[in-house]
Design brief:
Blueprint (H helix, E strand, L loop, with lengths): L5 H21 L2 H6 L1 E9 L5 E2 L1 H13 L3 E14 L2 E14 L2 E18 L4 E17 H4 L7 H5 L3
Parallel strand pairs: 1-6
Antiparallel strand pairs: 1-2, 3-4, 4-5, 5-6
């Protein structure tokens, strides 16, 4: 058992979720994989249960590579210790375009709940559950929405 204080755990949990968002939006799959244990269990609304980081990347990368524009915003971070160990949760606000319909801006509001594991060096997410609590989409042309750049293009434009 680590001696991580609640404050340190809160900072770590926030970093994990913010790095998750950044990794997806910039397609930094090495960073993404480093946030999770090798045997991570993933339960997302609308997806089959996934076991292991390799299986998750095999599922996640093709979908996101077909999204020319994504923006993940993670907020309302909470963490603590329970009978089963450390946990974290946050809200996610996700917007994306998919190649199958590049005029449709998709939006989902999610709740992420994580079981965290300390490996002696760093905290990682051992189990992640995501529930969609709201979603919608809009035709960007009809709505007059202009997306001048993606997080990916800005982050790699240094």
């Amino acid at each position: 058992m680590t001696t991580t204080t609640r404050h340190e755990l809160q900072l770590t949990a926030t970093r994990l979720s913010v790095d998750y968002a950044y990794a997806i939006d910039t397609r930094d799959w090495d960073l993404f994989a480093d946030l999770f244990t090798e045997d991570v269990v993933v339960e997302y609304t609308g997806m089959p249960e996934i076991r292991g980081i390799t299986q998750w990347l095999d599922y996640f990368i093709p979908f996101h590579e077909d999204c020319p524009w994504t923006l993940h915003k993670m907020t309302n971070h909470r963490s603590g210790y329970g009978p089963d160990g450390a946990w974290a949760m946050c809200y996610g606000d996700v917007t994306w375009l998919h190649r199958r319909d590049e005029n449709r801006l998709n939006h989902a509001v999610n709740v992420y709940r994580d079981d965290l594991q300390y490996d002696g060096t760093t905290w990682r997410i051992a189990r992640r559950r995501m529930n969609i609590v709201g979603s919608d989409s809009a035709d960007i042309t009809a709505a007059g929405i202009h997306l001048p750049a993606s997080v990916r293009s800005i982050a790699t434009d240094n």
